Amino acid sequence: GQSLEQPSEVTAVEGAIVQINCTYQTSGFYGLSWYQQHDGGAPTFLSYNALDGLEETGRFSSFLSRSDSYGYLLLQELQMKDSASYFCAVNTNAGKSTFGDGTTLTVKP
Amino acid sequence: EAGVAQSPRYKIIEKRQSVAFWCNPISGHATLYWYQQILGQGPKLLIQFQNNGVVDDSQLPKDRFSAERLKGVDSTLKIQPAKLEDSAVYLCASSPPSQGPQFGPGTRLTVT
After folding, report:
1. Which of A58, A96, B35, B36 is the most exposed place for a label (fewest CB within 10 A)?
2. Nearest residue on chain B to A93, judged by CA atoms?
């Protein structure tokens, strides 16, 4: 089966940089995805890593190390609207996506 | 591109009643997922379809939950009979090959 670990809560101030880590165990690993979910909303796709290294999309970047079964989401220039839950999800070569329990990010002024 | 559509958005039922949810995926997406998300947890996969065939239903409580995907497009998820612990948000998602799921708005189910 699959398992993922990520911190349950992270707090940071506006303008700061925050890193949310994710470690995983799975067979047939294909890639790691990140999703953002605001209270009462559905998860929205942020980024995807299939290869080792850093993917940058605006203020958000995501990193993957396949040999370490580890990835992280980096959020720069934090804004109040970034307060949300962030989920990592492993994608397998069978097309299955398994989600972690999420990290609640609180951005303070 | 229109997103994943779901209905209803909210549903309140009593335990032991039945309920059905409907999903229309993004046009052209062959893979359709149903996830259950309990408050404070990540989405848990209930069932995954590839076109109209089931790829994975290992976590679907088959004694009370059923799902079908008609003609490889729309899908319905049914719970019969409902239990209190079924209170959750039910998320439908779809994806093209080799990409992760894109979610609909979800149906918030409350079982009393």
Report:
1. A58
2. B98
Tokens of B52: 């109209």
pLDDT at residue number B2 = 83
- Report CA-CA distances (Å) from A9 to A62, A70, A82: 18, 18, 14
| Tokens describing residue A4 | 């993922």
> A14-29 b/e with 16+ CB inside 10 Å = b?
eeeebebebbbebeeb
Instruction: Give dist(CA A17, CA A30) in Å, integer.
Output: 28
Cβ of B56 within 8 Å of Cβ of A96? The answer is yes
Give the max Cα distance, chain A: 43
Token duo for residue B39: 């408050």
Instruction: List the structure tokens of A39.
Output: 């209270």
**Model confidence pLDDT, tens digit, residues A66-109:** 999 999 999 999 999 999 999 999 988 877 889 999 999 999 99
Put simply, whether B25 touches A (Cβ < 8 Å) is no
The alpha carbon torsion through A36, A41, A45, A47 (nearest 10 deg) reads -10
Closest-CA distance of chain A to residue B68, Å: 18
Cα separation of A65 and A5, whole Å? 15
